[in-house]
Task: structure prediction
Amino acid sequence: MSARTITTTSLLALKQRGERIACLTCYDAAFARVLERSGVEVLLVGDSLGMVIQGQPTTVPVTLDQMVYHSRCVTRAAERSLVIADMPFMSYATPERAVAAAARLMGEGGAAMVKLEGGEPLVETVARLTAFGAPVCAHLGLLPQSVHQLGGYRVQGREAAEAERIETEALALQDAGASLLILECVPSALAAALAQRLRIPVIGIGAGNRCDGQVLVLHDVLGLTPGAAPRFSKNFLAELASVAVAGSASVDASDGSGVAFGIEAAIKGYVEAVKSGAFPAREHTLA
Result:
């Protein structure tokens, strides 16, 4: 793509051309610059910051003020990528609250799109937000903000009835105006079917490699996740290091770039793997 700002229209064009979309979470200005240089089209200011930045056990404690702050940090530096901001837990419990939260995330935070988790109960909310000019990224499958209700981080949509519900909700959210859909931890066959059926781009995480794009938590890509990383993720920095060691590559970081072991090289590796379809591989697919 050319060096102009990436928009929802740009992402739709990528889907229509069959070009995969690379997305990563991002929480600050420094990484926003690195991710853009590495070719990441979508920067997601995720409420996952509660776990990887704040050390919280879940995303639930993250506040709207914190999301606005981190969104602003990212958008100050991002010049090309589309920046999406997560709407935190209960900030969109009603359409009115959702509109107020989106006004802050986009007005103060500078985000170009907001993301919310859930299906049928949020159809009216998505319609309200888009009617007021706030682009929406929907999120189905595993919903991290509902982890207590779901009873843990489990694959969703394995049963036929559950898969049918997810498909019905995806279509309803698209019809309500959603411009993008993230599918988390669903069977790859279901994700592939939805990517084929929906007009809007479908971004997968733990949903196989037949989606229109992929997203991961940045800290997983760099091996910085506290505790065990999710099975669907991949440490691209460790892979880069192992390849360099196997090839007896020398490391010259005198220019500050990090060269073989550099963070930027690892992120570029992720982007290339997403674009080529090499990631996610079979071992990163949950069902």
About this structure: The longest strand covers residues 136-141. The two ends are 33 Å apart (CA to CA). Confidence is low (pLDDT under 50) at residues 248-260. The longest helix spans residues 160-176.
